[in-house]
Design a protein that fits this description.
This protein is mainly alpha-helical. It is 63% helix and 0% strand. The protein has 15 helices and no strands.
């Protein structure tokens, strides 16, 4: 799956690298480089934040099952990457002949085998995280394959990609809040209700991530041709809306009932005394400890995504459109971090944000699109 969608293990390229020129196999370094390009390894840094944001949205601490969800996500992401290039090998031969498959550095059968192996590994890891995680990972894997093989060039393509990314966040929530279901559990226990509640709480964060993915994918459909400012303009507008939602403080209900221990008492005229003026006045807004990191991370998200979108809107040439896609993919990390901070998980948010400079360093060596 190309670009921002879902497609931890790294590829074992030694046995899968195809032969280039007859009689002269590629060197180990050249084979590793080819697989690094095929799997777009720098883009992997945009994946762990999905599960971490899902755990934060579910109001749960990351645990070993969260790590299993992250590894499952990484495998499914790489399955999508390998399958994407296998499905696009004929188109890439005309538009991107330097890619590993059309250039002959990796055999198409090897790329397809890698996609199957990564998919199996991703589902196995999800199963180890528990039945709730597997119940999310299975449609996630199906969405990855459906996108690459059937939906990519249809109007449903961007929506499939967006669904995959949202499901990836829900995978983290499902894995973190529920382990293996005990034998004889009919799904009516308190644990089942807790797991379902965790996934429900993560739905708004999944919707945020899906909306961003939808915008990036719509831009990426013209990255080799350019020519239309509508997609980057829509992505720019989406970025503005998401930034506003991320910076808006969580709402809470305000009650005007008398404080505990001080119920209204009848006065000498037989009327109930009103609560004290201080207790009846609206409470002063309190600055949440997560407000500052949430705002900073939301600003980082906007700065990463908005500028290349704006340039592509003014001049939708292929280079600027590709730069906009790259910016949208890189913006996923601060978006994931802002979602975690918005859920109150500041430590998780900072951990996720720390992946951004690492991803940027590797992206300078290998393209993430």
């Amino acid at each position: 799956m190309a670009g921002p969608g879902l497609n931890g293990v790294s590829a074992s390229g030694a046995g899968l690298v195809g032969v280039g020129t007859v009689g002269r196999g590629p060197s180990r370094a050249a084979g590793a480089q080819a697989w690094t390009e095929l799997l777009r390894l720098p883009a992997l840094f945009t994946v762990p934040g999905d599960a971490l944001a899902g755990a934060a949205a579910a109001a749960a601490r990351p645990n070993p099952r969260t790590l299993l969800a992250i590894c499952s996500s990484l495998c499914l992401y790489e399955a999508g990457m390998a399958l994407n290039d296998w499905a696009d090998r004929h188109e890439d031969a005309a538009e991107r002949p330097h890619r590993p498959l059309p250039s002959g550095r990796i055999r198409p059968t090897a790329a397809l085998a890698a996609a199957c192996a990564f998919t199996g590994a991703g589902l196995s890891l999800a199963a180890r995280a528990g039945r709730p995680a597997l119940a999310v990972a299975t449609p996630l894997a199906a969405t990855v394959w459906a996108y690459d093989l059937l939906l990519k060039r249809t109007p449903a393509g961007p929506f499939a990609m967006a669904a995959a990314r949202g499901l990836d966040l829900l995978l983290g929530a499902a894995a973190t809040t529920g382990g293996a279901t005990p034998a004889g559990d009919t799904g009516t226990t308190a644990g089942s209700a807790r797991r379902a509640g965790g996934v429900r709480r993560a739905l708004p964060s999944a919707a945020h991530l899906s909306a961003h993915t939808l915008a990036v994918t719509a831009v990426s459909r013209r990255e080799t041709r350019g020519g239309s400012p509508l997609a980057p303009l829509a992505a720019l507008a989406t970025t503005g809306v998401l930034t506003r939602l991320l910076t808006r403080p969580p709402t809470s209900r305000v009650t005007t009932a008398p404080p505990p221990g001080r119920p209204g008492r009848p006065n000498r005229h037989g009327r109930l005394d009103l609560p004290d003026r201080d207790s009846a006045s609206p409470p002063r807004p309190r600055l949440s400890p997560a407000a500052a990191p949430r705002t900073a991370l939301a600003a980082a998200y906007a700065a990463t995504a908005a500028r290349p979108y704006f340039h592509a809107t003014l001049n939708p040439s292929p280079p600027l459109t590709q730069r906009a896609v790259s910016g949208g993919i890189r913006a996923m990390i601060p978006l994931q971090a802002a979602l975690s901070a918005r859920s109150g998980a500041t430590a998780t948010a900072l951990l996720t944000a720390a992946l951004a400079p690492i991803a940027g360093r590797f992206a300078r060596k290998v393209s993430i699109t």
